[in-house]
Amino acid sequence: MNRAFSRKKDKTWMHTPEALSKHYIPYNAKFLGSTEVEQPKGTEVVRDAVRKLKFARHIKKSEGQKIPKVELQISIYGVKILEPKTKEVQHNCQLHRISFCADDKTDKRIFTFICKDSESNKHLCYVFDSEKCAEEITLTIGQAFNLAYRKFLESGGKDVETRKQIAGLQKRSSSSSRGRIQDLETENVELKNKVQDLENQLRITQVSASPAGSVSPQSPSTDIFDMVPFSPTSHPPAVPTPNGTQPPPVPGRAAEIKRDLFGAEPFDPFSCAAGDFPPDIQSKLDEMQEGFKMGLTLEGTVFCLDPVDSKC
After folding, report:
1. Contact between 161 and 147 (Cβ < 8 Å)
2. Which is nearest to 144 in space by CA: 21, 235, 293?
3. What digits encode the pLDDT tens for the residues 41-69?
4. Is 0.90 surpassed by the pTM of this model?
């Protein structure tokens, strides 16, 4: 590897200045990865990084992992590394942080560049694999650097300083937003705790205000039709009249008469008086009583209390 940003003056650039300054040049490549390097530039530095990432890629390939494909967008502002389908930006390497770029003469598909990370300030070497465009991508990055440097000289350095200030403001704004979200979450937790404390205090106050030994009235249990079950010994509660006076008490029954399923009083022919039945029925009952006293059986005898029935 022996190509950096310096180029010979007899060679022309591949793209128009407008394409790199107002737009970007896209390329597709395979991303072998990035690794930290000790120096910001140097052929031996990138050679060691390529050897290291190739070895790691061979191990992953033996495990069945494929080399991920990425899209490179090159402009005078930097090199963006995106996911090809979703266009999600994976890395955004600003051009003024790129210190070295080269392609491999022994392996025409490999090209690399070294960029200083904006957060950790570490130098990272990015390695790519492009079957046909490795050298072209390297030259395009070199052209973008040349155009950016000319623009810097024409503006007297103001344009670069402006971009740095904007980047700093964006970074501070982002950190301020994260801090504000954390403050709101903390305030929300504190308010929840205060509400819980107030509920506990109110509950304690209600318990202490109630007289000792008092039993709260319990509502009677109801059936599945939401009706209060009837008990012959219980009386319905007195409902006050509209004028506030209590209604007169309901007199209780001396003795409740038991009735059968159909609401009729039970019938016992042996406990009834003689005058309770017609003469013909009473004579039948007298015969039955005499038969029981004599030890006779009534098997096969059919009788009824209805004189209209033909079988009687």
Report:
1. no
2. 21
3. 999 999 999 999 999 988 988 888 899 99
4. no
